Automatic annotation (TrEMBL):
Organism the protein comes from: Candidatus Brocadia fulgida
Entry-linked PANTHER family: BLL5683 PROTEIN (PTHR42850:SF2), METALLOPHOSPHOESTERASE (PTHR42850)
Listed Pfam families: Metallophos (PF00149)
Transmembrane segments: none
Protein name (record): Phosphoesterase
One Gene Ontology cellular component annotation held by this UniProt entry: cytoplasm
Cross-referenced SUPFAM superfamilies: Metallo-dependent phosphatases (SSF56300)
Residue ranges occupied by any Calcineurin-like phosphoesterase domain in the UniProt entry: 4-194
Gene3D superfamilies per record: 3.60.21.10
Signal peptide boundaries: none
CDD domains named in the record: MPP_superfamily
One Gene Ontology MF term: phosphatase activity
Length: 307
């Protein structure tokens, strides 16, 4: 099955729409779009992002096509581009499955993790709470924190299987180890940095777009990503070995690896092959929305720089 996996949309509708158009234009037909949490937070378009995601999950019974057409009619697109985007959204109707992340739970008023959020993130969450529609608030509250595809040997989670909305993974990469991964392949996000790691029972090696050789591994890995010169953008999952893989699919709406382009991953669960992808989008429009919403200035700058 051909799965598109995305994460950390963070209320950036411009990035999300660019990814949708890319998927429908270049990756179709696909089996599923899997969304690994943090649909909202940071950005200025939480309702538009929730509406698009709900349409991908439930179709026009949840979100009317007139609303989808309205979202597709972005002013920086010409009429032909708007038409193509609208039909790209229609082509992906009911192709989606989603879980929640820590920002989604915070925005929905779930048990608080705000003490662990920095002031910028907390300010954005408080703003988001004030603008979410009742439908989207209910949607966010209903999202599970993990989703397992046992027959295909993988699962999606926002952070880690044992603490799916927590900050352990960001602060200490040591929590990721063979024994704390519950499936042969785990897809997550949370750090906004695309990367992938191979775990064995004894040692750890690495393979992905951000590679960290086992001999460079340290407990601060997620805070200071060390890059290898041996980078790859795609690789095969070796099912013949007793390995476990953790794949961070990066961020659609707020990448933090120095590349502002939106991220997504293609995973063929039949062929066991994985590929990282990047998509350029109108980051200036996303930045302007943040400024106009009077959200922290830092957020308007980050989408432009990918930091």
């Amino acid at each position: 099955m051909k799965n598109i996996i995305i994460s950390d949309i963070h209320s950036n509708v411009d990035a999300l729409l660019a990814v949708v158009k890319e998927i429908a234009g270049k990756e179709f037909p696909i089996s599923r779009i899997l969304i690994a949490g943090d649909i909202v937070g940071y950005g200025a378009s939480p309702n538009e992002c929730c509406d698009v995601v709900r349409f991908l999950l439930y179709g026009r019974k949840a979100v009317e096509v007139t609303k989808i057409n309205e979202i597709a009619a972005q002013p920086y697109l010409d009429s032909h581009q708007q038409h193509d985007l609208y039909h790209a959204l229609l082509a992906l109707e009911k192709k989606g499955l989603a879980i929640g992340g820590n920002h989604d739970r915070e925005a929905a008023g779930e048990p608080s993790l705000t003490s662990e959020m920095n002031p910028v993130a907390l300010a954005a969450i408080n703003w988001t709470k004030g603008v979410l529609t009742k439908e989207n608030l209910k949607f966010l509250r209903g999202l599970s924190l993990r989703m397992k595809f046992g027959k295909e040997g993988f699962e999606i989670v926002h952070s880690t299987p044992s603490y799916p909305r927590g900050y352990e993974y960001v602060r200490n990469a040591g929590v990721l180890k063979y024994t704390t991964l519950w499936s042969p392949v785990t897809f997550g996000g949370h750090t906004h940095r695309p990367s992938a790691y191979i775990y064995t029972r004894e040692t750890r090696t690495v393979n992905a777009s951000v590679l960290v050789p086992a001999d460079n591994y340290d407990m601060r890995l997620m805070l200071i990503e060390k890059e290898s010169t041996n980078k790859v953008e795609s690789f095969a999952i070796d099912s013949s070995k007793d390995w476990k893989y953790y794949v961070n699919v990066g961020s659609v709406g707020q990448p933090r690896d120095g590349n502002p382009h939106a991220c997504y991953v293609i995973f063929d669960s039949t062929e066991k092959h994985l590929e990282f992808k990047r998509v350029s989008y109108n980051a200036e429009a996303a930045s302007k929305r943040i400024t106009e919403a009077k959200l922290p200035k830092e957020l308007s700058e980050r989408v432009l720089k990918g930091v």
